[in-house]
Structure prediction request, 111 residues.
Amino acid sequence: FTTNKTGSASLLNADAASRNSDAVETEAFGMHVSPNPATTMAVVRLTGLGTEPVSLRLLDLTGRVVREQTIRPESSTESVRLTFENMPGGLYLLQLSSGQQARTLKLLVSR
Prediction:
C-alpha cells in the first residue's frame, strides 16, 4: 500500500513492483493435442518452450507409462507426432514436464 497526501491508501501496481524486483520470471509452456479423440495418430503442439529438455509421457489410467519421449527444443514451439497402433482404445493422460513446470491433458484413443 502507498499513502497519498490526503492520507488515503492505494495498492501499488503489482506489475511495476515485479519489474523492479530481482526475481527471474519463467514463461509457462502450453500443450495442445489434435485430433482428440484420436484413432491412429495425433499431433502434440508444444508452445512456450525454453532451452531445457522436455519430457513427454503417455500414461494409461492405472498410471503405467505407455510411451515416453525426451524432446530437446530447437525453438519455443515444437510439434510431436504420436502413433497409437497396437494400443487399445481408451482414455490416456498426456504429461509434459520440464524443470518445475508440468501440464497434463486427457487423450481419448478410439477404436
In short: The first strand starts at residue 2 and ends at 3. The helical segments are 14-19. The first helix runs from residue 14 to 19.
